[in-house]
Amino acid sequence: FNFEIAVVVTLLVCTLVTLLTIVGSLPTMTRCNGDVVGTYAALVSGPVFFVTLFFCRDLQDGFGIASQDVFFDRACIRQAKHVCETPGHADTSTGDFHLATLLKHSDQLLVVYSSVYLRKLWTVYEVAAFTMQRKDATKHMKVLPVSLITVVLVQFALCYLWAAVVVLLMEFGAVMDNRLVAPVLAALEAAYLFAIRTWQREKRNMKDSILHFKVRECLCSVVDDRQLVYSNIRALLRGVELILPAATLDEALDTFDALMQTRFR
User: Fold this and answer.
1) How far apart are CA 111 and CA 123, in angstroms?
2) 121: buried, middle or exposed (CB in 10 Å: 19+, 13-18, 0-12)?
3) What CA–CA distance (Å, rounded) separates 69 from 190?
4) In angstroms, rounded to a whole number, what is the distance separating the alpha carbons of residues 231 and 252?
């Protein structure tokens, strides 16, 4: 959610540190071959990136800067059935708030994708409710794979640690041997290629899941929720005029299957 902001802030801070180094406000190091280099940009990049990534919104709230409102379904919808008798709605004691209505008025949908995402009934319904009610839905929907996040963060951490080690070795006058540098750079490149390959594999699996999508085969942890979601799907399709008002539940589900298989391919 804060990745783009973290990248921009890190680049700005590194640029500022580099300029201060150029004008002589920050100290430099001299390599064994006589080259004068600055090292502070490499040292501050990691902490600045991770602090911004994890605490950007907290810092905004602390300084009174307006931030984005986020609706996190699992945290915002009561999961206990005795508290919320109608799944997909807010607490009935404070008034109904339909999930499809909230998605219709949302500016963006962030999908934290994993292999089970398109096999869970409620998550499929959320994506469908968002896209069917907006003509430009695909421009406002981001898919963020769980595995890719982990690999990118680990690779960034490794790159930062490697830069810190290089700086420390230079500080103590150690000479960097190319026979040591090359394998480390090759390992980092392999990690990057592994991340790209993992994401491409997930995209292929996602396309296969969409191609053979059947809403009746989706998983639902609460048995009673299944008929409720089916009814919501039929109501949603009626609302956007994709089925006739007199269409049966089976006709609505078949239409929903065909819609998922074509629109999200």
Assistant:
1) 9
2) buried
3) 38
4) 9
> What is the mean pLDDT of the segment spanning 117-138?
81
* Concatenated DSSP letters of 6-59: HHHHHHHHHHHHHHHHHTTSS--EE-TTS-EE--HHHHHHHHHHHHHHHHHHHH
Report pLDDT digits (tens) over 164-209.
Answer: 776 666 666 555 555 666 676 677 777 777 777 877 887 788 888 8
State the Cα–Cα distance between residues 265 and 250, nearest whole angstrom: 23
Type of residue numbered 179: R
Q: Which two tokens stand for residue 151?
A: 């690999």
DSSP string, the chain: --HHHHHHHHHHHHHHHHHHHHTTSS--EE-TTS-EE--HHHHHHHHHHHHHHHHHHHHHHHTT--------HHHHS---TTT-SSTTS--GGG----HHHHHHT-S-EEEEE-TTGGGBHHHHHHHHHHHHT-TTGGGGEEEEEHHHHHHHHHHHHHHHHHHHHHHHHHHTTPPPPHHHHHHHHHHHHHHHHHHHHHHHHHHHHHHHHHHT--GGGSB-SSHHHHHHHHHHHHHHHHHTTSS-TT--HHHHHHHHHHHHHHHT-
Which residues touch 2 (CB under 8 Å, ≥6 apart)? 52, 53, 54, 56, 57
Q: Assess contact for 205 and 115: CB atoms under 8 A.
A: yes
The single residue listed with the structure tokens 């390599």 is 31
